[in-house]
Give the backbone structure.
Amino acid sequence: MKIALNRRSFLTASAAAATLPLMPRMAHAATPFAMQAAWINDAEFAGYFLAMDQGYYTAEGLDLTYLPGGPDVIPEATIVAGRADLALTTPDTTIKAIVDQGAKFKIIGAQYQKNPIGIVSLAKNPILTPADMVGKTIAVPPVNTISVEALLAMNGIDKASVNIVPYAYDPTPLIKGEIDASLDFTTNVPYTIKTMGEEAVSFLLYDFGYTIYNDTVVVTEETLAAKRKELVAWLRASRKGWDENNVDTTLWPPKWETTHFAGTGRTIDNEVFFNTAQLPLIANPAGVFAMTEEGIAANIEALSKVGITATREMFDTTLLEEI
Amino acid sequence: MAFRVRSIAPYLALLILWEVVGRLDLVAVGALPALSEIIARFWVDRADYPRHVLATLQASSAGFVIGNIIAVLAGVLFVLLPVTARMARGLNIAIFALPPIAIAPILALTLEGMTPRIVLAALGVYFVTMQATVTGLSQYDSRAADLVRAYGGGGRAVMRFVQIRGAIPAILSGFRVAAPNAVLGAILAEFGGGGRWGLGAYLLGSLGRGEPDRLWGIGLTATLIAGLSYALFAALSARMLGASRSVTLNPAAPPAPAAGGGVWIGVVSFLLPFALWWGLLLALNVPGMIGKTPVDVFAYLFLSEGSAAAQGKLLLALGETLPITALGLVAGLAFAFGLAVTSQLAPSFTRAFLPVALVTQTMPLVALTPLLVLILGRGSAVTLWITISVTFFPAYVMITQGLSQVPRSVLELPRAYGATVWRELRLVAIPASLPWVFAAIRTTVPRALLGVMIAEWLATGRGLGNLMNQSRGYMDFSMIWTVAVVSVLLSVAFYRIAQITEDRVLRRSGHP
Amino acid sequence: MTAPAGITLTGLCKTFAGQGGSVEALRDVSLNCPPGSFTALIGPSGCGKSTILRAALGLEPLDAGSVLIGGQAPAIATRAGITGVAFQDSALLPWRTVAQNVALPLEVLGRSLGPAQGRIRDLIALVGLKGREDALPGELSGGMRQRVAIARALVSEPRVLFLDEPFGALDQILRRQMNVELQRIWLETGVTTLLVTHGIDEAVFLADRIAIMQAGPGRIVEVLDSPFARPRLPSLFAAPEFHHLCDHIAGVLHGV
């Protein structure tokens, strides 16, 4: 490996090398543009992969660099550090950072109209409403404990009546009966449970009052001012990708077996399941990424229940209007 | 031939036992698959491996090369100008003691692309190689040096003709210990850092899928790479030495030239790590929101509005982490000591047991932890076991090394006078291995903390490891830095306490 | 070979400061070794004989007294390549071949190796190691390594040779062989030699003059001649007059 003295050029080179097969090589005049995803490559980001493969970003004049996420990656930090122009985030952390740390972020769109997070249980021991959680043991990732407690409060349930234990995204304890349910992506883990020989049921936190978006599209105010045109172009190309993906959710994941999904350790069947399950969570009559006034109000309301004071100014819907 | 069969028999028995246990799903309903199942799964996944392995090799070799170059140059500098060794002492201990888990998120925050992986790999090799270089350059043949001086040669001639070439075996044996560290460092950074390729990234994608055979496959592949890199340099250094050497760890403390040299050197030594931390933030131009300086962290903990809340969270986490770390450390050392003594009495048992122990050392903790969770659940037991498993082996190697340097006749003397085994231990084995027990404590403290924090992060959701994870989720950058700093300080403090106790006890008991 | 130079030690004093108080290693030691002579310095362990040799080479600073080698201070004499030295341990560099080890002093002195190749070969032959030029020290026996050290001591064409118990680690049989060989080499080169030893027979067999030391403080108590004609044959070890002289020295050493 050649180590250049200039850190930025070295890093850009290695980042480019890492994503080489993913990036359609640009002829000329395309503006470099980087996006930070929220997690490793899976169907959660299908629309972007499709737009890349179909050249929608190129057509919009963007030379897109796609950065996958991971447990140590804080998407908001990547845009603060200037390594990406745009990040997919969870709205609660983004807004908390704006409030607590004065971070200059704007939310310019939302991929998931409904947060896919929900309570997943086994069909043979179903938990279908918050009321069913009473007296049960629920595994919750530490970061989400506050959301679950808010859910219980909204539904008039004493949090002492539910046994919350830490959880690290592994369905094995659920299958083994050590826990009755877990908080997880309802678009993903039911598939794993099925491969392990059980049937899963779930309900979304969203459907019981915790009405927040997920994979919110976040930029810094600085980027918003400097790259408005590119951001609109990205939204347009990405929406085009999602629209095409959503026509037939089983069509595209198999095509990415040797590209975007190569070596992730996940199966294509899993991605197809994911892609299909997330369809109703992404869809909005106003188009993908839409943020309606009611939707924003619902987010502000839900976040206030977990002690996060969101305001309307944190959401900028004007770019969506320009698509 | 008969000898060969006998020497592999224990391993064969172990493999058969593994196969039976795995096939019958005896351990935690299939958490430990049979070796044949793991291999079969590996065959199914074979197309995935090459790029992941290649990425891990790239990052770890880059880190290995860079870390070693810096380490050798630093070692030469420390020997040529001992004052620099004294000034860099604080920095060296900090690098030695820093738990990789604590700084991986910091690196992911402040660096990009492959750099966090390379840096973590380089950090893993620096101390070992620097130490080996200093030892190699310092332990030259004084008679050969006298000879060079007898012909009017000065310090530089001695360095040129005697020290440098004489240090090569030591440096190579440093490389040998450092090589697996580079691999493990790279994998840890891959796991968290959000790249597509690398065994760590593969592991992350494979977690939570109810496929222990895949997890084992990745873990064993990582183990194999780490083990092969060790073997490569072991072979190389054996060639250079013209003789093979047993597994040894250097029990020496970081270069501690005689005290003195004034207070200001101590001050420099203390301040250097902080200066470097601050300087790197400036040099990398890290935005203030993400990159916290020493002053920021101090202000966050003691001066800010939320300082009381921050302190509360930190103390709560420390209250959970510290006892289990101490317990795991003591248990790991006791186990190591017991085994070291046993191995004097029953060498064949130890021979059969050691390969298993070696695997637990070279298997990445991020791979091992989810597997142990399947077996042990998410209670304190899993934390304790992980801590014991990471501390016991280096401690065992060191204590054995210590015991092996006690002449057999000395060990047997009390028995000749009819002493019981316990009395014999108390009279000879314990005092004789005391220096190595302390060396073992010093070297295993950072590992213990690493083990506990990884278990807390991936399994139990308690303590510092969890606080770090949670702070990441809440984007509480100040707390992320605070946890990193506190865990390094904790590690350094443990280290210093062990060292000071060591000095006191050894001086009193008449060790040189 | 250039003309041998003499060694003049005058009034050497040295005290080592240690934990249990200080040790007076040398008190007013004077010794004159004329050019071309072979002097043995003999005494019990710890009498300071090695300190004298190290001081003469400039490896040990003195509290008082002066050392002159061919009329020059040790630092100048050693740097000029006037001296050659062999220690009790051969101190060969394990990664260098026999020829490379022999060449080491030349490299330290900054002399070019090219013209010396023939001389290096000759010296290796002189110490009886012809054909082993490319062997590594690890492949040689203890006696062979000592002979390499002797060859190395001679490579800079020294006018003064310092030998610090060069055969101390060898067994009695090998040691006698080496004594015979050293005499042969000395006769061929005629270099002024100061041999530090604790072997009485070795001193009597090899030296023209024997300086006997006692410890506490280290001092020279008697200097006597070894009058036997050269070349001395191994049969000398069995001669009654040889034993007579040895017994006398033993008597002086034990303070009888």
The mean pLDDT of chain C is 88.
